[in-house]
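Weekly puzzle thread! Below is a chain. First person to post its structure in token form gets bragging rights.
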Amino acid sequence: MTRPLENKVALVTGASRGIGAAIAKKLAEDGATVAITYGASKDKADAVAKDIEAAGGQAIVIHGDANKPETMQAVADEVVKKFGRIDILVNNAGIMEGAASIGDVPMDALDRTININVKSLFILTQAVVKVMPDKGRIINLSSVLGERAVIPGISIYNTSKFAVNGMTRSWALDLGPRSITVNSILPGPIDTDMGNPDAAAFTAMKRLGKPEEVAALAAFLASPAASYISGAEITVDGGLNA
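Winning reply:
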């Protein structure tokens, strides 16, 4: 039986843990060859690659410091050098820090958040679309907080995720003539080190989501079955925004 992503090459950023790791494993399970990037956790990234290989998949690990957006071109170049193409780009790398009311937001946290959550995503995508075949897939990991600013004190994170959704919509228009789809996934409270266990109470399902539940949507959006879905912002939030 042919798997839906057979012979595809996927690049997943920030895939050493959490949602990124789950997406990398699911894309590999569905047949893709996967390149995963990490910022600081090489051991964890290597462990993800080993899990993929143990399950019969193929993966490589690439260092990519998303706080240095100018290095993103080299990440794309390395994947193309190894595999010749990038069919699927999952922009997952992101941070949440500098929580404070607007009058007290530290400028270094603003710069770092915009570098990682916005500029690196933009520059990497710009590099990838130049080599991505027609009918490719771009999946941006945003947040429900990029749709509704429901929590005070995290304006720089919210701003960065609103920007991600803006890029998704704009790129869907830019790349539509090439049948490249661009979509945002907006996770709600997920059981990762960035998740808040107390937030489970605000969901309709009264639990945290699993990284694998986000990965299932990413794999669908990467597949041929999602060829007419583009410019969408899809929540995975257990009914938080119902």
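Puzzle host: Confirmed. Bonus trivia for everyone else. Residues 9-190+211-234 form a domain with the Rossmann fold fold (CATH 3.40.50.720).
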